[in-house]
Specification:
single chain; about 180 residues; mainly beta; four-stranded mixed β-sheet; two-stranded antiparallel ribbon; 2 helices
């Protein structure tokens, strides 16, 4: 084994209040019979992109209050801070291939979440530390550029929260106005 990180889900996203519902709209394409799906598909950075000191080691990252068996040795304390803003909606323009996001102030902005990094007793004990926000922002921007997308959020934001504000519609020449559930309006 070269390296392995197992982390608690809260390390990547501490919010639990959003439940995604796959939605779709019909009416796309020249014949109006193609379905567009909005599917649950989020890409979070791996722990290797969030912390330093985990390459070439087996590391366990848990909330600070959790205690692994006595055969583990603590190798780091990590504090994540919630971002200033949360993305609450997005829009994709099929004509220009532009994705735009709308964000709101995060009611938990600045809230700290504490974690501990652990390794098996006898393994190398090099320290595990949070990467600097500047490095995280550069990596996030580079990943968005590779995907042809935009950087959504802020340096320490690893979540995209999608909360539909209204029922989406699709319109176009020769296409009746339809709701996301396919009913004519």
């Amino acid at each position: 084994m070269l390296d392995l990180v197992v982390c608690h889900g809260d390390f990547l996203n501490a919010r639990h209040d959003y439940v995604h519902q796959n939605r779709s709209v019909r009416g796309f394409g020249s014949y109006g019979d193609i379905l567009i799906r909005d599917r649950e598909m989020y890409v979070a950075p791996t722990p290797f992109g969030v912390v330093d000191g985990v390459a070439h080691h087996a590391t366990l990252i848990l909330p600070a209050a959790a205690r692994p068996p006595n055969s583990f040795v603590k190798v780091g304390d990590i504090t994540r801070r919630e971002s200033d803003h949360l993305i609450v909606s997005y829009r994709f323009d099929l004509r220009t291939n532009e994705l735009t996001a709308e964000s709101v102030r995060n009611p938990g902005a600045g809230r700290e979440h504490h974690f501990a990094a652990w390794r098996m007793e006898g393994a190398p004990v090099g320290a595990v530390t949070l990467r600097s926000p500047r490095v995280l922002a550069q990596d996030t921007a580079a990943a968005a550029d590779e995907d042809g997308g935009q950087r959504l959020g802020h340096a320490e934001e690893l979540r995209i929260v999608l909360q539909p504000l209204q029922e989406p519609t699709v319109e176009g020449p020769g296409v009746p106005r339809r709701s996301a559930r396919g009913r004519d309006r």
